[in-house]
Amino acid sequence: MTEYEKLLAGNYYDGRDKDCWAKQSKAKNLTVRFNNLDFNDAENHRKILEELLGSISEDADILAPFNCDYGRHIFLGKGSFINYNCSFLDTGYIEIGEYAMIGPDVKIYTANHPVRSEDRYYIDENGKKFWHTFTEKVTIGNNVWIGGGAIICPNVTIGDNTVIGAGSVVTKSIPSNVIAAGSPCRVIKENK
Known about the structure:
This protein is an alpha/beta fold. Helices cover 21% and strands 31% of the residues. The strands form five sheets. It has a seven-stranded mixed β-sheet with strand order 2-5-8-15-18-20-21, with no helix packed on it. Strands 1-4-7-14-17 form a five-stranded parallel β-sheet, with helices on one face. Strand 20 and strand 21 form a beta hairpin. The N and C termini lie far apart (46 Å).
């Protein structure tokens, strides 16, 4: 199994691998181009997003600046919108449903590490200490609104029609049809 296949499978992988590095380099170069486009250059804006992302549906959009690790692991549903200054650490998959609104400065993380310090690092073949990394998917449902500055942690699902309050830190999955906020984020009330 290659390091990239390990990454996709959620196993420990070595991010220094040449194939992983090449895929990240492509994404980083595309985001530099994207972030430096003239705001009115809609044609190239869309072309770059189509090349960068795993998929972007009709009427979906992202405002610059935007940063990601791979791009190809992000799937953006119809009519969804990602506001400016968002960073998606998409070593794992990020699936965003239809008509989701992602506020400015939102961070979505799929990379993870062991909690116990003795498990977090290993010694590589050159005798260097390096950290164990694995990925966990993030899924955001249809008609979700994530307020500005929220942080979505690995292995989280946010259900349809849910609102996540600005500045929330979402460490666990949140069900459909609720308003949730806080650090850690928790359900405040139903959203019917």
